[in-house]
Structures are given as structure tokens and as C-alpha cells.
């Protein structure tokens, strides 16, 4: 990459929703874009030992696992396709008006509530039970192309993922390179000039006119710390959850769609929804909950996810190792949500509920807007930007995919307008 003509205008580090969107939009605008992705290959399996070996599962606190995706497409490979709109007021407080970008994203991404005919028996039963208790339990907006769903089922191609954006970016001339783990950003006279990365065990230098870090809420702050931005990684959220389970009268369907319906209690700071998890996760959680009598009950177990909006706390170190403890406020939210879930299961006619260990999802808030980033998402250098969940400035608790797509669309628009 020593030839100046071959140096791209933009390096995008990470190919999840935000990285894919900003790469696609910049390539469409005529920029020469190179995407560097640590992962590769097919979607990962869900066996815990494999996840730990690939560092797609790690302990984030005593007894608490964090799950993430280190694959082409990032979190869009494993998420539950819930299209929660971004909190526009939160970003407006930091000088970013996302309304126009949200309109652009919604014009091309599916975001409608699940159709009634796609609601399988257990999620339907839980929604009815929640409503009978006066809860605002309703069908959730999903990033699923419902026009492709027939006879009560949705084929794999109906579910949105960042792969669509990546394919479009490549068609527009973007260069997608996999198996490239970025170690640090390189600077010259206060400006980012590229990155150092490890590929097949060898260090390489990739140069560019602009660098956009979209490696996720864990990897991005670690890269920044190794690049000299010591404050990155100070505090983060992880949207911890527990799953409340009970043997019920209805049978689980192979085509259950997780988070078909539910609600978010903004005042109390927790979300409840139906959920479907792989059988071996179910057995691990059931064993950990001390209910070996239920190990063979997967096919008739109703499950409710309780996810809380946790406080920003803890630390992510330069090696990408997160650590935190959950305080009294976090534990109170979880306890309230679990008790609400127990009541819904009881109203649905399920048996004695039990509760999984804590699991963390959606790590972010580790390079916060307004502290380390300005309204152009610039960090430490005017041509180094961060665009992923790490920029979210406040405790979260929401599915972030639509927000990340919107932030990326806004950033690409700003950079294109300013001549990149």
C-alpha cells in the first residue's frame, strides 16, 4: 500500500451494522473504502466452549458472561432483529440531529411489527397473559422482510443483516478484507494516517486519509487505548439480562421468532419479552438454576427475557478485557423485572418459574459522545472517528441496531458533504 494512488480515502474497522452502513454510503458517494474485519467464515455456532475459545463469550463480572459476535456482519449475525427506534432527544442533547438519517434508514430497512400469523403459540400466550395483567405487552417492530414470510414462517433470507450492506459496498468498489485484527491507530503530526493490524500472525500497516473505528463496544476502546487515548474504556454499559423459565402447557415451535412481543418500562429501566434460546443454552441455564428436573423440558418451556438499563461503570483494558460489578440500582431493576416476569408466567398457566444466571449483551458507552467524541464523532484527531455502540452517551437498555445504522448514515452524510 505504499503507492499513493492505492491508498484508500477511508479505512473502516469492523463490518457490523454501523461499519457496513458507513462503508456502503461512503462508497456510494465515490470514496475509496477499505473495510478491515477481524472475523471471517460462516455464522458462529452457539456452543459455549466454542464461544469462549473464539472470545465471543467472556466473563464480564463474577459469574456473568458477555456474548458478542466476531464475524463478518458483526452483531447482525446473531441479534434478534428488533427495530427499536433511536432516542433522538438523547443525541440532540449532544448536537446530533438524527431525524433525516433515520428517515433514510427506515426507507430501506424493514421495521414493521410482526404479523399475527407469524406469532407462534408460546409468544402469543405470553402476550395475552401480560395484557391480562394490564401490561403494555405488544408486538415488537422487527427487521424482517415480512413480504417473504408465508404459511406462518419466515425463511432465512427474510431476516435483515449487515451482509446486504456489505455486498452493496463491495459492488460500489469497497475492498472487504477479513481476518485482519487492528491493533492500533497510527498518527502523524496529530492526524490519523492509518492503522497497524495483525493478519495471519504478521503485523501490517494500512494507510488511509481517514479512519473510522466500528469494531464494537469492547474492541474499539481497546484499540484507542493502545493508540494513546488512555481515557477510552472508562465505564461502559452491557444491557444485562436474565431469562425466567417455566414449564407450560404449549409446545415450542422450531420457527419461534425471539422477541416477538414485549414492552419496555422506561421508568423502571427494564424490558420484558418472549425469547427462544438454543437447547444447549437452555440446559446450561437450567442446571445453573438448580432445576435438573427440567433438563428434558425444553420443548414445553416458556421463557421471558428480563433486560435492564444498567449504570455505566467498570473498565475495559487495552487487551479488550471488560470488568465490572453490578450495583444496588442494577440489582433492584433486575429483581423488579424478574418478579414481573414470574407474574406473567403464572398468568400464562406455566409451572414454578426459575431464573437463569446473568448474561450481558450490547456492550457500549465505552467511548462516549460528549466526553471523548464531538458531534462529528471525531476522537483525538479530526480524521479519526468512532461509529458503533461505544459512542452511546448514556445508559441504554434498548436493542441498538437501528440506532447504529442511523448514526452511521448520519456520519457518512456529514463526511460526504464535507468532501470526506
What topology does this entry show?
Elements: E1 10-13, H1 17-28, E2 33-37, H2 48-53, E3 57-61, E4 64-67, H3 88-92, H4 99-108, E5 112-113, H5 121-132, E6 138-139, E7 141-142, H6 163-171, E8 175-178, E9 180-188, E10 191-199, E11 202-207, E12 210-213, H7 219-226, E13 234-236, E14 241-247, E15 261-265, E16 270-274, H8 279-288, E17 301-308, E18 313-316, E19 322-323, H9 328-347, E20 354-355, E21 359-360, E22 378-379, E23 381-386, H10 401-417
Parallel strand pairs: 1-2, 1-12, 2-8, 4-21, 12-23
Antiparallel strand pairs: 3-4, 5-7, 6-15, 9-10, 10-11, 13-18, 14-17, 14-20, 15-16, 16-17, 18-19, 22-23
Helix pairs in contact: 1-6, 1-10, 4-10, 5-9
Describe the structure.
The protein is α+β, with helices and mostly antiparallel strands and 420 residues long. The protein folds into 2 domains: 4-44 and 69-109 and 160-233 and 365-417, FAD/NAD(P)-binding domain; 113-141 and 151-157 and 241-357. It is built from 10 helices and 23 strands. Helix 4 crosses helix 10 (401-417) and helix 5 (121-132) crosses helix 9 (328-347). It is globular, with a radius of gyration of 21 Å.
CATH architecture of the largest domain: 3-Layer(bba) Sandwich
Tell me about the largest β-sheet.
Answer: 6 strands, mixed
CATH topology of the largest domain: FAD/NAD(P)-binding domain
Task: Report the average pLDDT across residues.
Answer: 93
Amino acid at each position: 500500500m505504499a503507492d499513493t494512488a492505492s491508498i484508500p480515502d477511508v479505512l473502516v474497522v469492523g463490518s457490523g451494522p454501523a461499519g457496513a452502513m458507513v462503508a456502503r454510503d461512503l462508497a456510494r458517494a465515490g470514496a475509496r473504502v477499505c473495510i478491515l474485519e477481524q472475523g471471517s467464515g460462516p455464522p458462529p455456532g452457539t456452543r459455549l466452549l466454542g464461544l469462549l475459545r473464539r472470545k465471543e463469550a467472556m466473563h464480564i463480572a463474577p459469574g456473568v458472561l458477555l456474548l458478542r459476535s466476531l464475524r463478518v456482519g458483526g452483531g447482525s449475525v446473531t441479534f434478534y432483529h428488533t427495530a427499536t427506534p433511536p432516542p433522538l432527544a438523547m443525541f440532540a442533547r449532544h448536537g446530533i440531529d438524527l431525524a433525516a438519517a433515520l428517515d433514510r434508514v427506515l426507507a430501506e430497512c424493514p421495521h414493521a411489527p410482526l404479523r399475527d400469523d407469524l406469532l407462534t403459540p408460546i409468544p402469543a400466550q405470553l402476550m395475552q397473559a401480560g395484557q391480562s395483567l394490564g401490561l403494555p405487552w405488544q408486538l415488537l417492530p422487527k427487521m424482517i422482510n415480512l413480504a417473504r414470510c408465508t404459511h406462518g414462517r419466515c425463511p432465512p433470507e427474510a431476516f435483515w443483516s449487515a451482509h446486504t450492506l456489505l455486498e452493496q459496498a463491495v459492488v460500489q468498489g469497497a475492498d472487504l478484507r477479513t481476518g485482519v485484527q487492528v491493533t492500533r491507530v497510527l498518527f502523524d503530526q496529530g492526524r490519523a494516517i492509518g492503522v497497524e493490524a495483525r493478519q495471519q500472525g504478521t503485523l501490517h500497516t494500512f494507510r488511509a486519509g481517514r479512519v473510522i473505528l466500528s469494531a464494537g463496544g469492547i474492541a474499539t476502546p481497546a484499540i484507542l487505548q493502545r493508540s494513546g487515548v488512555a481515557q477510552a474504556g472508562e465505564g461502559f454499559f452491557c444491557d444485562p439480562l436474565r431469562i425466567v423459565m417455566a414449564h407450560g402447557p404449549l409446545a415450542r415451535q422450531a420457527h419461534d421468532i425471539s422477541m416477538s412481543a414485549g414492552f419496555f418500562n422506561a421508568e423502571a429501566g427494564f424490558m420484558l419479552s418472549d425469547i427462544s434460546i438454543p437447547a444447549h443454552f437452555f440446559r446450561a441455564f437450567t442446571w445453573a438454576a438448580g432445576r435438573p428436573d427440567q433438563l428434558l423440558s425444553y420443548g414445553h418451556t416458556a421463557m421471558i427475557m428480563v433486560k435492564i438499563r444498567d449504570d455505566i461503570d467498570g473498565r475495559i483494558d487495552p487487551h479488550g478485557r471488560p470488568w465490572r460489578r453490578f450495583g444496588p440500582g442494577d440489582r433492584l431493576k433486575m429483581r423488579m423485572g424478574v418478579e414481573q416476569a414470574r407474574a406473567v408466567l403464572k398468568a400464562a398457566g406455566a409451572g414454578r418459574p426459575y431464573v437463569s444466571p446473568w448474561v450481558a449483551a450490547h456492550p457500549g458507552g465505552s467511548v462516549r459522545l460528549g466526553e471523548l467524541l464531538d458531534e462529528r464523532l471525531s476522537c483525538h484527531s479530526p480524521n479519526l472517528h468512532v461509529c458503533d455502540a461505544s459512542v452511546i452517551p448514556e445508559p441504554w437498555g434498548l436493542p441498538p441496531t437501528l440506532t447504529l445504522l442511523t448514526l452511521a448514515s448520519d456520519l457518512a452524510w456529514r463526511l460526504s458533504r464535507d468532501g470526506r
